[in-house]
Amino acid sequence: MQHRQRCFLLLAALGCSAPLSADEIRVAVATNFIEVMERLGEDFAAQSGHQVRISSGATGKLYAQIKNGAPYDVFLAADKRRPTLLDEEGMAIAGSRFTYALGKLVLWSPTEDYIDADLRVLKKQDFRFLSIANPRTAPYGRAAQQVLEKQGVWAVLRPKMVRGENIGQAYQYVFSQNAQLGFVAKSQVFKNGVFAEGSYWQVPEPFYDPIVQQAVLLKDGAAARQLLDYLRSPAAAGVIESYGYGVAAGSH
């Protein structure tokens, strides 16, 4: 499996001790949410003493891994289609599925004043490469395709596109300036109210289907259920929003 792995084991500070029944929770996370989940995993581990082991990748590939028996306890997808399929296929714990974040798409370049509100850079094709995630496996890639189709430039720009296996790779192409600009998750270039250096266009949400990111429990267990409860908490919602995501009604 091609994915990153992170493992957090933080015991509660200030004199608190880990519970005797501390467990490891294996979480499959869509690439766009990896940094947020690392932060949330640290916070949850500090409170609970449980380990959170994170594997990340494109939602479509993680779904395929789960179908093939990958030993994950929790799946945080970048869409709702795959968690719904797992529900319908009997591979998820009934009643556990919920929306943990609402994704947002941004066209970004590390170069100042490169992207403007009129999108002249796209219309003039004044660049060598445009990075997007693979629309077949990554929901953010599918959203990027919808935006380009709405702008009437999908077909003409296809020869200039480089496609990342997931949104993390699509971002890296731009960050490394192998591509001059690209469609990325807002969370990759926004934190605590500030955008990364460069230039950007926040894509209007009506330009693409809502990126409803859902979580589902794959294997029942007290520790995994505690993690999902934490992800629905006001504290977690505050962290999620600080990275530029929307949260579902009732998360606060």
TrEMBL record:
<dbReference type="InterPro" id="IPR044084">
    <property type="entry name" value="AvModA-like_subst-bd"/>
</dbReference>
<feature type="signal peptide">
    <location>
        <begin position="1"/>
        <end position="22"/>
    </location>
</feature>
<keyword id="KW-0479">Metal-binding</keyword>
<protein>
    <submittedName>
        <fullName>Molybdate ABC transporter substrate-binding protein</fullName>
    </submittedName>
</protein>
<dbReference type="InterPro" id="IPR005950">
    <property type="entry name" value="ModA"/>
</dbReference>
<dbReference type="Pfam" id="PF13531">
    <property type="entry name" value="SBP_bac_11"/>
</dbReference>
<dbReference type="InterPro" id="IPR050682">
    <property type="entry name" value="ModA/WtpA"/>
</dbReference>
<comment type="similarity">
    <text>Belongs to the bacterial solute-binding protein ModA family.</text>
</comment>
<keyword id="KW-0732">Signal</keyword>
